[in-house]
Design goal:
Blueprint (H helix, E strand, L loop, with lengths): L5 E2 L11 E2 L11 H6 L2 E2 L7 E2 L4 H10 L11 H23 L5 H11 L5 E4 L6 E4 L3 H16 L7 E3 L8 E3 L12 H17 L7
Antiparallel strand pairs: 1-2, 3-4, 5-6, 7-8
Helix pairs in contact: 3-4, 3-5, 4-5
Length: 209
């Protein structure tokens, strides 16, 4: 389980200098497809936390993920479809982590989403920044689905891992040289688990022997 407030920066809304709320999206150390799967947090607990609670949240994620520049309009039907794709991505990622075949139904759902035209990239005149233009949430979800497909077609498909924090359940790609990364992010679960271990050691009775 992630802590409810953490230092904030990067693509997480660009709101540096304030504490990060539970409802804020996470992009640290995550591929696009797994950052999207992470919009349902605390998967290992009995009460997962839903960050895509409203259509407006999905529009906000589309911009904060840098998939598009302008927030696309979203309906309840769009939100339902997005959640279905998210869970298909999560289950497919778990299958990769467990080295087992994914569900054909999940793969079909991912392929349908990827068939939509993705947002159009536009390079700035100084060649320093890229803006993405897509007027529908389907375009954004296509970009997410295509990222999962690109992962499955790469050598990194064997490096998909599940976070070592049992409360979390987030997926990540271990690109470390040793292949020994344990946490979805050291800023969240890594720090939390280490803090718990430290507190447990403090409360361990001293050995009288």
């Amino acid at each position: 389980m992630e802590s409810s407030v953490e230092d904030m920066g990067g693509k997480d809304g660009g709101r540096e200098g304030r504490q990060r709320a539970k409802t804020d999206f996470r992009f640290d150390d995550a591929r696009l497809c797994f950052a999207f799967a992470g919009t349902l947090a605390d998967r290992g607990t009995g009460t997962p936390f839903e960050r895509l609670a409203r259509p407006e949240d999905l529009s906000r994620w589309a911009v904060q993920s840098a998939c598009t520049t302008a927030a696309p309009p979203c309906t309840e039907a769009d939100l339902d479809h997005a959640r279905q794709l998210r869970e298909a991505i999560q289950r497919t990622g778990r299958a990769l982590a467990d080295a087992v075949p994914p569900s054909p139904a999940d793969i079909a759902l991912v392929n349908r989403a990827a068939a939509e035209p993705p947002p159009r990239p536009e390079l700035a005149p100084d060649a320093a920044t890229v803006r993405r233009h897509g007027d529908s949430i389907a375009a954004v979800l296509s970009m997410v689905a295509r990222d999962l497909i690109a992962l499955c077609a790469s050598e990194h498909r064997t490096r998909v891992r599940v976070c070592g924090n049992p409360d979390c359940g987030a997926l990540f790609v271990d690109t470390s040289r040793a292949g020994a990364r344990r946490w979805c992010s050291m800023k969240t679960c890594g720090a939390l688990v280490k803090k718990r271990a430290y507190r447990a050691r403090l409360h361990t009775p001293a050995d009288d022997a």
